[in-house]
Structure of Thyroglobulin type-1 domain-containing protein:
Amino acid sequence: MWPLVLTLVVATTGAYGAEVCPGLKTMYLPPQCINDRDKCPQNSTLEPASKVCNMCDGCTAYIQKDGECEPTSGISCKPGYECDEQELKCVAKSCSCQYKADNSYYKSWTPRCDGFDYAPVQCKGEKPTGRCFCFDKKGNRIFGEQLWANAENMTCACSRQVQELQDQGRKDVTLHCNEQGNYEELQCDDGLCWCAEEKTGKPISQILPENMMIMLPCYDKLNVGSAYLRQCESLLIAQKKIEIEMAAHNSRNPNFPYVNCELDGSYGAVQQDGNQMYCAWKDKSRIEGYAAELRDMANMNCRCARDKKMYGNLIQHICLGNGNYNHEQYTNNGTRYCVDADGFLDDNACPDSSVSC
């Protein structure tokens, strides 16, 4: 049975002279939508804001995997699939998130997908012991993680927004994300500050100039102090602003020292000391002896070193000298197994794997 969509819309004419849809220029009552995704019929999906002037969720029918299709028929393949013009059937786009999910590309986890793209939150392992990470749309891990058992409110919305702003060319983004990629309550960016809802980042207060942030209800002097930026990002943002100013005058950027910060303002996992890169904790202190030469910086992520620092004996895998997970691991009886960059089982992660994606 199709879900009930109860709508109260007053479409006035005459004095207002316009229809409610699509411009919504007339006076109307907000629609009262009642939806139940479990009641969508087979071969259909509950799509957000797809019905009643894009104000109510509703079921949308799709052609399923390997179903016959016509590119010009107006009926789409299900999200994550496209109509192959040669075979005229719905197929997953090669190497897309949906392709990898349907073909069990990863051995220890199944990616969550938004169409062809990766969903923001990806969880690996088993719920009691696994972890969830923030991902960009292309499947790259970004800032934010949480134990799966504690990740109920994890959205990664802040990490995603910062990533997208940076991809658009913003070098001086100062939004603060918490450890699971959600928004911190106090936010400042581009000279303005506001209180934000954690999961969505939606402003829940006035928006004030940064020099007036102490007037916001979410300002906490003990946690924030007199300056919004933390120690690491203060230097980083100062560098970025100089780069922006010099670029505006067609000047060459100076050779700044390497600065690597996380989106919560702490120091990043990889730090520089002369010609050496080393694995660091959030306060920039060294993590044991994990290090690499400057020329190897691009391949260094220090995830294994940081995980051992954070989780202790729960991490039994062997780290490489540069702090990354060794993709090849061995049990006590010499049996080889493979782990991915986050330390989770994945047969495709070993160097001799023949996978194409």
The helical segments are 97-102, 157-167, 221-224, 231-248, 303-311. The first helix runs from residue 97 to 102. Residues 308 and 315 are 6 Å apart (CA to CA). The two ends are 40 Å apart (CA to CA).
